[in-house]
Amino acid sequence: MKIIIIGGSAAGMGAAAKLKRNTPDAEVVVYQKSSYVSLGACGLPYVIDGKVENEKDLLSRSIAEFEKSGIQVFTNIEITKVDFDNKIVYANGVKDKYDKLIIATGARPIVPSIPGVDGEGVYSLTTLEDGVEVRDKIAKNNSIKSVAIIGGGFIGVETSVSLINMNKKVNLIEMQDTLLSKSFDQDMIHHIEDELKINGVQVYTSTQVSEILLNDKKVCGVKFSNGKSIEVEAVILSIGFQPNTSFLKETKIKLMDNGAILVNTKCETNIKDVYSGGDCSSSKNYITGKDIYSPLATVASKMAKVIADNISNKNINYVGSIQSAMIKLFSKESARTGLTELQAKAEGIDYQTVLINDKNYPSYLKGQTDISLKLIMNKKSRELIGAQIIGSDNSILRINGIVSLIWAKTKVDSALEQIDMPYAPPFSRTQDILHIALSKLNK
Amino acid sequence: MKIIIIGGSAAGMGAAAKLKRNTPDAEVVVYQKSSYVSLGACGLPYVIDGKVENEKDLLSRSIAEFEKSGIQVFTNIEITKVDFDNKIVYANGVKDKYDKLIIATGARPIVPSIPGVDGEGVYSLTTLEDGVEVRDKIAKNNSIKSVAIIGGGFIGVETSVSLINMNKKVNLIEMQDTLLSKSFDQDMIHHIEDELKINGVQVYTSTQVSEILLNDKKVCGVKFSNGKSIEVEAVILSIGFQPNTSFLKETKIKLMDNGAILVNTKCETNIKDVYSGGDCSSSKNYITGKDIYSPLATVASKMAKVIADNISNKNINYVGSIQSAMIKLFSKESARTGLTELQAKAEGIDYQTVLINDKNYPSYLKGQTDISLKLIMNKKSRELIGAQIIGSDNSILRINGIVSLIWAKTKVDSALEQIDMPYAPPFSRTQDILHIALSKLNK
Q1: Residue B421: which CATH number?
Q2: Residue A241 and residue A258: Cα distance in Å, rounded?
Q3: Same domain, yes or no, for A84 and A175?
Q4: Which of A35, A88, A127, A225 has a beta carbon 3.0–4.6 Å from A210's, enabling a disulfide?
Q5: Domain match, A119 and A84 both
Q6: Do the domain assignments include residue A327?
Q7: Residue B387 bridge partners (DSSP)
């Protein structure tokens, strides 16, 4: 059996490795657009301020290692056409026949169609080259004093920290009312926004960029739709991602509205023997069961295993994700999982929330820090469906306990109130923040 | 209704506070042996080395605060007799009648019956006065150079760290083959033992003390049962605890072999209208359902609420504990929950284990540290029944995720392998240590 994989990132290479472990004699061929594979793209913001000293370290496994395990990797080849009827993929000078195909082409940054967007000094942060460019041409470049980051999602916010660390004046511009609006509710996000502002980030929310101003083709500012403008010497686009599926548009493969390949719980597309996963495909919301687009490394690596296992006839379902994510900004840490309150409302769920402000450990020990937790519970099923936590010193790793409760669909009741979380003074309180929150929900 | 509570620690004061919240017009009377209530005894080791600057901070709520909420607190009164038939408690000069009685008298340190144990310079660590004594007479006393700590449980081990911090020569002596033998298996505990040794603690395992050597009634050494002896100027006893129930021995109340008051899941004793909880009573193992003795603050605070709720006719069951605990020793942190492998074996459970040594976050970020995780799974039910984790920088808070899985009795299968724990480079890996462990168990 010959399996062709288009794309050498988390989903593609994860599936390749698992396929070879499942079925050592399968023929596994990867076509990869760039010169490397297995980029840990989540590390790119840390390249900018030198927390990652050598950007090559972001490549978690080398091509040689994959080839040693019998996987054939062809780099610098972009598949431009698939003939699904005859099971053939095409690239410039390449024509290859598959038994099973995995499409794992990932995503690219959304580029807004505004004037000046193709000017010199406009960057994004997706590839290894992007990371190096932003580091060398912005962060380490003393002639660049001021930067605009367009889009206040995870990458925009992390990049703003890295550029502050490199002594840039940072303008973080978000269209929505708050930063990270898909991930945190308004009653939690102010902690994050305050931390950014305290550390010098100029945060513009409810602000749309209408034009990137150029001077002799070089970025010299951005203009807002309210007519105001600011001077900057560089722009980073971090609005979001769109799936790399334009080569499939004229085919019969079913796509979501944003172009993501629609897959079922087996990670199968609507075309027989064609699978997809990761940032180019749909995934599933574990709580609502709905098809969603969720370009996260954690989702990609799990879908990769499901694809490989199903090709190996193990009959595994991808059960979905709850968009768990965390972020460290200066000394403030935040994590989130499940639905936000806004999302619960939009889903028409009858929900109840609780928000607790407490401390990480007992007051008698020095160094106590703040911790805030918001829980969202489905009132009818009494299951937790979302959580947001903000703290410092890794105290937010507590959220793993809530992730498991959401995953297990545990009901909030007097037995759950008694959940036996470990306690010791340097870490937590006998009645820790989760217990306080659960007992409020259980009133 | 008049409720008398004997004992003013976690269980007693927790029940008192909850009773008043449930039923504001109930008459709640507390008799407490010492002059204070609500001691956070887990903080005592941190008094020794000054991490707790003011020992009074260990009293989480003052008597005045309790009295303000309508709870009557009588201090320095030790109840010496209970007439269960006539519902009367007695102390020197006190005779008081109850409708409901809560016995929450706590525990005292086990004192071994060896020669020299009543010498000058032998201490234990249970009361606030103990903490102050060990701090002032050992830790801050420059004439004390060398100390023996007898008993390598949590308190013994934590105290050894505090005394090293105060520049003492510390000899930590444990009868069993390993330290913390009820909490960690041999294949994990060596990390902890090594950390203690590296930091200067002289660890003696498989070693029994046969005599405390005295010179003019003062401690001058300890002698081992193998005939050897070491010179020390002070001894701390941390062998374990025995319930404070000797005043009940001649009554018809049912006790466990060690003297703990036997209670059911309502925290009721065998005598009508008499409840008990905390360090003086039995509790329940959540996994095996067996009555156990588990003198932990987390257990006491949960039983306290169950007692109060049942007196308030809320019909709540105490569902048990999984002996979750954590400990920080120098830069090494450890947490555990559920059954150890040894305990699973002793219970006759058909189990499977996995032990993973990994890192806390991706290698491309500086400051990566070691993390080790052991999971114990019931092979028949495929439920996790135990976990032990060792790491640093609060990375062990991950264990909360496993506590929830044990609590929810989640089966280890391909859906659980996909559990969506949050990931970001400063905290974790896309395929984090729990995922690696679960996928090994699910092979």
Answers
A1: 3.30.390.30
A2: 10
A3: no
A4: A225
A5: no
A6: no
A7: B337, B375
Q: How do B209-215 and B218-224 pair as beta strands? A: antiparallel
**How many residues does the structure list for chain A?**
443
What is the edge-to-edge ordering of all strands in the sheet holding B88-91?
Answer: B81-83, B88-91, B94-97
Q: What are phi and psi of A376, to 5 degrees?
A: -125, 125
**B380 burial class (0-12, 13-18, 19+ CB within 10 angstroms)?**
exposed
Residue at a domain's end among B311, B326, B358: B311
- Asked if residue A171 and residue A98 are part of one domain, the reply reads no
At residue B304, the pLDDT reads 98
At how many degrees (to 10) do helices A297-311 and A10-22 cross?
A: 30
Element housing B304 (H / E): helix B297-311
A268 shares its domain with A370: no
Kindly report the average pLDDT of chain A as a whole number. Answer: 97
Is residue A296 within 8 A of residue A325, CB to CB? The reply is yes
Q: Which two tokens stand for residue A44?
A: 């790119």
The Cα of B388 is separated from the nearest Cα of chain A by a number of Å equal to 11
A285 to each of A253, A299, A379, A427, how far by Cα in Å? 22, 11, 19, 32
Write the pLDDT tens digit of every residue in B253-274. 999 999 999 999 999 999 999 9
The answer to whether B442 and B413 have CB atoms below 8 angstroms apart is yes
Q: Tell which of A217, A239, A261 closes a domain.
A: A239
Do residues A180 and A275 both lie within one domain?
A: no
B113 and chain A: CB distance < 8 Å anywhere? Answer: no
Give yes or no for A367 touching B (CB within 8 A).
no
Identify the DSSP state of B97.
E
31-90 in chain B: CB under 8 A from chain A: 40, 42-43, 46, 51-54, 57-58, 60
Structural domain boundaries enclosing B32: 2-38+58-107+242-311
pLDDT in tens, B359-387: 999 999 989 999 999 999 999 999 999 99
Q: What is the pLDDT, as a whole number, of residue B443?
A: 83
Strands (E), A56-121: 71-74, 81-83, 88-91, 94-97, 100-103, 107-109
How far is residue B393's CA from residue B113's CA, in Å, rounded to a whole number? Answer: 41
CB contact under 8 A, B57 and A424: no
Helix, strand, or coil (residue B285)? strand
Work out the angle at residue A356's Cα, subtended by the Cα atoms of residues A350 and A359, and round it to the nearest 5 degrees: 155
- pLDDT tens-digit readout, A106-155: 999 999 999 999 999 999 999 999 999 999 999 999 999 999 999 999 99
Residues B138 and B162 in one domain: yes
Domain count, chain A: 3
Q: Are residues B219 and B157 in the same domain?
A: yes
B267 near A CB under 8 A? no
